Amino acid sequence: MPLSTRLLCALFTALLAPVTHAAGASSARDLALNEVVDVMLSRPTAARAEAPFSASGWLAGLPSLDASYLQSEERLGTDETEIGLNLPIKSPFLYWQDKRLRELDSALHSAAVERRRLYFSGLLREAVWTARIAGDHAQQAGKMIALLEQLQRREQDLFEARGSSRYALLLIEQELADARIVQEDQQAEAQRWLARYRSLTGLGSLPVDIDEPAAPAGEAWQTHPALQLLELEREQRQALVAAGSSRGTPWNLRIGAKRVESPEFDETQYGVAVELPLGFTGTDRQSSSSEWQSLEREFTRNRDELSQELARSWQNLQIQAQHLQRRQQLLDAAASISGQLYSEAEALSQLNELGSEIRIKRLIGELERQAEASTNQLLIGQNRAMSRQAAGIPL
Q1: Which terminus of the chain has a lower count of CB atoms within 10 Å, N or C?
Q2: What is the reported pLDDT for 311?
Q3: Beta-carbon contacts of residue 3 (< 8 Å; ≥ 6 apart)
Q4: Is the pTM of this model over 0.85?
Q5: 113 in Cβ contact with 394 (< 8 Å)
Q6: In CATH, which of 1.10.530.10, 1.20.1600.10, 1.10.730.10, 1.10.287.990 is domain 91-245+284-390?
């Protein structure tokens, strides 16, 4: 199915979930995780507020008009009428700062969009992997219950035929009760995270394929979108401070007309005047310098704190990944030995050379090791997903 068609089906399912839950379940299960994030981001949200004003390319402010009239009290004097249009023109420095601010606005918007996608990717990764692990625990508990119920029936028959003691039967019933408690707890946990997933996406069922490739090697967190966004915000504040400093003072262009009237002659004059601020080193305001230094201190503090947090999270996940890989090898080796013990236990039980309690514990231990190996595989997949999240890689 083409990507666009699958997304449309998923969006339709999300909007009409109460009506088309069963019909849309299969299409929702077939979606890739990045398509689910697209569905999440496509859900209705509050409209983005647009700026109530726009900037001019060359005007630094509103134009103004000035008018004056001077009347002479002398009989041969002159009367003067003058009108002028004042245009505050951006200086080259202010023009460059405005241009830089427009570029930063665009870059900040793109960074914010990526950061938002990363945020929802994190919510989705947490929900699907926690639900999958809880579901696996419930499934393993179900296998344990099936085995114990089989053993319970066998022991019940033996007990009724006076071939075994009540102790073995009670032991199995105790293990069966514990397994049912575990199954109930894990099913409730899986349902809780499935409900969380549905509230996030509007979709009725989890995707089948949630595995992700490994995160890039090295210090991948150093390209995290949060760091890039922090750097862009710093540059924006620097440009705002620079534009508001004395160096950003606009030039004033005045276009004037003057009418001179006297008993001897009348004259109309037209002219242009330019007012240019003279900039010298050290003539700026102290407030601009102090604000610049303040934002640099704030940026350094925020960058250090964020870098340490990202590095710590990344390192913890890398250590966990190595541990899980080593643990998987040990679990596979233990499962192999446990399988042999299971076969031997079955053979000895047929010869009545192995006590009921030991045999039951061997059977339960075999299932528990299988469950641990299955869970560890899921934890490895979850670690890969969260490592990509820590590296700032969205779905």
Answers
A1: N
A2: 93
A3: 35
A4: no
A5: no
A6: 1.20.1600.10
